[in-house]
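TEACHING EXERCISE
Course module: macromolecular assemblies
Task: Read the component lines below, then compare them to the predicted structure of the full complex.
Student: A.B.
Group: 4
Components provided:
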Amino acid sequence: MYSLHKRGTSGLNGKPLVSIISAGMSKFGKREGLLARELFAEAVSEAFNRCPKLQPKQDIKAMFIGHMGEAYEHQGHTGSTLADWAGLTGIPATRTEAACGSSGVALCSGIYAVLSGLADMVVVGGVEKMTHRTTAEVTEYLAMAADFPFEQFHGITFPGLFAMMATAHMHTYGTTEQQFGKVAVKNHHHGSLNPKAHMQKEITLETVMASKYVAWPLKLYDCSLISDGASCIIITKPELANKYTEEPVHIIGSGQATDVIGLYERESLTSLKSTKLASKVAYEMANIKPDQVNLAEVHDCFTIAELIAYEDLGFCKVGESGKIVESGATTLGGRIPVNTSGGLKAKGHPVGATGTAQAYEMYLQLTDQAGKRQVKDAQVGLSHNIGGSGATAAVHIYRRDQ
Amino acid sequence: MSIVEPFTIEQFYKFLQQGKLMAGKCLKCGKIHLPPRTLCSSCHSNEFNWIQVSGKGRLLTYTVINVAPQQFQALTPYAVGIVEMIGGLKIPGMIQDIKQEQLKIGMELTLDFGTCTNPEHWPQWSRYCFKS
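Instructor-supplied answer key:
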């Protein structure tokens, strides 16, 4: 396993912005018969039970919830609905929507709330219920996160947008379909170690390569899963954290950024400016450099997205992400394990729940509760959540309590 | 005094139906917007001129879509790409009448106004495509 000593911890002096005192996540997958609110209750219940000293009705002052689509369940007004089903009616509950980045953005908003001093204990979470819809319907709903007048209107789907980035990456850097496939194989390996993952079985590169094209050059196994699920974390002021738990996890950097909505207007087709902007802010706030990050959960909605994230987050040089995944550096046991939860690829991608599900994994890893997929001696983690084809990015940096 | 058409996306599509690819040029900073905008993203001016852009460009990137929403399922597999027009402006769209094996980054494509059709439901804009 990977050793911290080689990396050093000098410079880890980013002051905690907020502290996570508990976290919960529903099982991800095809959760037949359950509505979004019921999945959310499952996540919240776990978070409450993990923290016996917490008195939810007295202590929790606000809720921020990521949720992408009303279309799935014909249910809008998500903030209040979920506060209701979480047994927290009365508190301000705000739904944030940034497509697949909805709960990463909810986390940024929750941090604003705690740091403002107006709410010292906040539930931040997300939820999506998707699997009761047909693939065509989900494809249509997800495409709503793109630029309607020029993307959806011309039949450009979500996989289509990332496929165009993949084509450009292959053309510019020589990245291969096999390298994309390696991301899928790695994340399914990690997912096989996560009892809450949607898919808990290993796959081979041959399986990936033999799967059908969804949008060339991306195949079925390059795409994340359509899943049901919910997740949440409970954050508070760092000085209050020890009242509730002996093992808080601190968030020491938080960055959220935007870019133009249409992929066609971006400065680059092989890099996301929003990720670069958000991570720059988060790294500076945390006083951390990319090589001090011990593990990361990145937004692998498609395998190419994980490779681009390595480059934009500074985990490798531009153009070398394909080689990095092949080297095993981002596999459990490697230099910087990425998506130990299985990622969106294997753990599943109930879009609104993804950002805080990444935070949930960070909470488990940095409190040594990640079971078979535990990264040994991890001190610093990073989560990276994007919305749509990257017009939103939210990056957070976490540190173990010292 | 002549009436200047509003610098809207709807107007952009109306021009396409007339066989013209039109962009908005900011009168203050000179930035050209394709599609047009009502507020310049560079300098926040709201004064523009329409300028006609050549329908010729080169393919920057592409994909071939096999899984599509209901509305486009009958067309699968279909190619879409982002095309950089002469002058550097970029727009996406479907690419028709070219086999997948023949698609190549850098190939020359032309916006085909003849393929513009108006959908039955909102938005009733002319859907253009690219051909070689």
